[in-house]
Specification:
about 575 residues, alpha/beta, Glucose Oxidase, domain 1, TIM Barrel, 3 domains, 16 strands, about 45% helix, binds phosphoenolpyruvate, binds magnesium ion
């Protein structure tokens, strides 16, 4: 009999196949005493287990092709970093030494303590990171036990093609293992939509539904199921009508994927002949490679925060090395390097910017260019590295979170000083390196006529612009429904920015997430946007919409809508734009 189970929709895609119920090799953590003479051996046993766990994760990360899944590799690497976390490591060793107990038990005691600290945090995101610590500790514990050392599951076959694994819960490491064996989809009883396992499944393209209660009791080994990861539904023993419908959806998705690949070398020109520039956002080498593979016209946003999250600020040479390697990958296509944008939602990691910690409201505090102007030595180091890179290929410099003309002037003075430093050292750079600003603060948008005169280009950071215009925290799920590009205030503001940029004759792009969401492509084109920068994985889908859009017709429709945006019961702007394309 057919049965439908619901859970969290965390990783879209359809998987159809046979059920495999994964039995975890459960760990039994017991306590036993050791003698003083055995302490050093026990500590060594613990260290060996940490090393073995780390090796396992590193091996998994290496097996995941970075072009496919940058976040996947990063998640696993974050678990590797946690293994080296000196707090857990040292306190576990102290516990073994002082309490004369076995390593498994010492680790368990430390875990309880760390978890109680996590549970007391207000921030839901941080609280869920407690799951990661638990998973890392479990892996080390499994390495301490001979039975579970190399087998997280009791009965997982080597090949999992057409197989859907049903588990109580899965760690990112376990999921990576299943991926390696070709798993078609996963269902778990535990695990939230923000868990790393969820993010990992999505970035690996594994259809997944998490948090399905009693899944292991309700689903039978070897029975046929459909997992609809976008809907968060699992259909057990589907009837033939449902099965056929889902098989057709799967075939259609494959046809769509192939049609996008065929678009790679086609121009991004609209139906009415407007040429559009499609660029990519990047942070890591894998995204740079991917951007070249999908035929992007360059990098419109190269985020550099990752360089600063490694423990100490990077020096000029190590930054230069990163930029040069990006330039080499791009082989002549432009690279837009954004200067440091730490603060607010971007974790300060292990760097001690003590000023940042004092902000009561970090999104309105000392972030991005404000931070850089308060630490000019740090900022100038980056400017020098960017300038030096500009000698090797086409480089633009982009400043985040600009609010006022004064800030732009200060930045220009510092760029001049950085140039003079390089002159003294006889190091070459592009003297005309274009300087641009992210427009993400409403005041900057409204005074672009003044600001823009000092700039060579602008890039609209819609992620933050929407947050500040709508007073909606970009990371707060509770108000996510209010974060809306179709709000007339936002639409008017973006239209205004693009109009002023045209008058000033400076290029303007959008590099926030909406640039890569194909449902918004017509809206942005209708507002006059000609340059998009987005995650490379989105580029071909956006290109497809560009090639099917009549921009003139979309412009007429959006202008009529702006005269009277209507109310809740009227068609949405996106619907109106869709209709404008039927008989343009
Ligand atoms: C933005 O705000 O739209 C943007 C691209 O910058 P970030 O997401 O890095 O803040
Ligand atoms: Mg931003």
């Amino acid at each position: 009999m057919s049965l439908t189970l619901k859970g969290h929709a965390v990783a879209p895609g359809i998987a159809i196949g046979r059920v495999h119920l994964a039995e975890r090799n459960e760990l039994e953590i017991g306590e036993y005493r050791i003698s003083e003479a055995d302490v050093e051996n026990e500590i060594q046993r613990y260290r060996n287990a940490v090393d073995a766990a780390r090796d396992q994760l590193n091996e998994l990360a290496d097996k995941i092709h970075p072009d496919v899944a940058v976040p996947a590799v990063e998640i696993i690497q974050s678990h590797v970093l946690m293994m080296g976390d000196s707090k857990i490591r040292e306190s576990t060793e102290i516990h073994i030494r002082e309490e004369l107990c076995n390593a498994e038990w010492a680790l368990q005691s430390q875990l309880e303590q760390v978890l109680s600290e996590f549970r007391s945090m207000d921030d839901e995101y941080i609280r869920t990171r407690g799951e990661d610590v638990t998973q890392v500790v479990r892996l080390i514990q499994s390495k301490l036990s001979a039975e579970t050392a190399n087998k997280p599951f009791e009965n997982i076959p080597d090949r999992l093609a057409d197989t859907l694994v049903i588990a109580k819960e899965l760690t990112p490491g376990e999921l990576a293992l299943l991926h390696e064996r070709g798993v078609a989809g996963i269902v778990t009883e535990h695990g939230g939509p923000h868990s790393h396992t969820a993010i990992l499944a999505s970035s690996l393209g594994i259809p997944a539904v998490l948090g399905v209660r009693e899944a292991r009791r309700l689903l039978r080994e070897d029975s046929t199921i459909i997992v609809d990861g976008g809907l968060g539904a699992v259909f057990a023993d589907p009837d033939s009508a449902r099965l056929q419908r889902y098989q057709e959806i799967q075939r259609e998705a494959e046809r769509f994927r192939l049609s996008l690949i065929a678009l790679r070398d086609r121009p991004a020109v609209s139906l009415d002949g407007v040429e559009i520039s499609l660029q990519a956002n990047a942070e890591r080498p894998a995204e740079l490679i991917q951007s070249v593979e999908v035929g992007s016209q360059g990098i419109g946003l190269y985020r550099t925060e990752f360089l600063y999250l490694q423990g100490r600020p990077p020096d000029e040479e190590s930054q230069l090395e990163e930029y040069l390697s990006a330039i080499q990958t791009l082989a002549g296509k432009p690279l837009t390097i954004r200067t440091l944008d730490l603060g607010a939602d971007k974790s300060t990691g292990v760097l001690d910017f003590s000023q940042l910690r004092r902000s009561v409201n970090p999104a309105l505090g000392l972030r991005a260019i404000r931070l850089c102007l308060s630490d000019t030595a740090l900022f100038k180091t980056q400017l020098r590295a960017i300038l030096r890179a500009s000698h090797a290929g086409p480089v633009r410099c982009l400043i985040p979170m600009v609010t006022s003309v004064r800030e732009v002037q200060l930045v220009k003075e510092l760029v001049e000083e950085a140039k003079q430093d390089l002159d003294k050292r006889k190091l070459p750079y592009d003297a005309n390196i274009p300087l641009g600003a992210m427009i993400e603060v409403p005041a900057a948008a409204l005074s672009l006529g003044d600001l823009g005169r000092y700039l060579d280009f602008v890039s609209i950071g819609t992620n933050d612009l929407l947050q500040y215009t709508l007073a909606v925290d970009r990371g707060d799920e509770q108000v996510a429904h209010l974060y809306d590009l179709q709000h007339p205030g936002v639409v008017r503001l973006i239209k205004h920015i693009l109009k002023v940029a045209r008058t000033l004759e400076i290029p303007a792009s959008v590099c926030g997430e909406v640039a890569g969401e194909s449902r918004y492509t017509q809206l942005l084109l209708a507002l006059g946007l000609k340059e998009f920068s987005m995650h490379p994985a989105r580029l071909l889908e956006v290109k497809q919409v560009v090639r099917k859009t009549n921009i003139s017709a979309a412009k007429v429709a959006i202008n009529q809508w702006l005269d009277d945006p209507g109310g809740q019961d009227d068609p949405t702007l996106l619907e109106i734009l869709d209709r404008s394309q039927i008989n343009p």
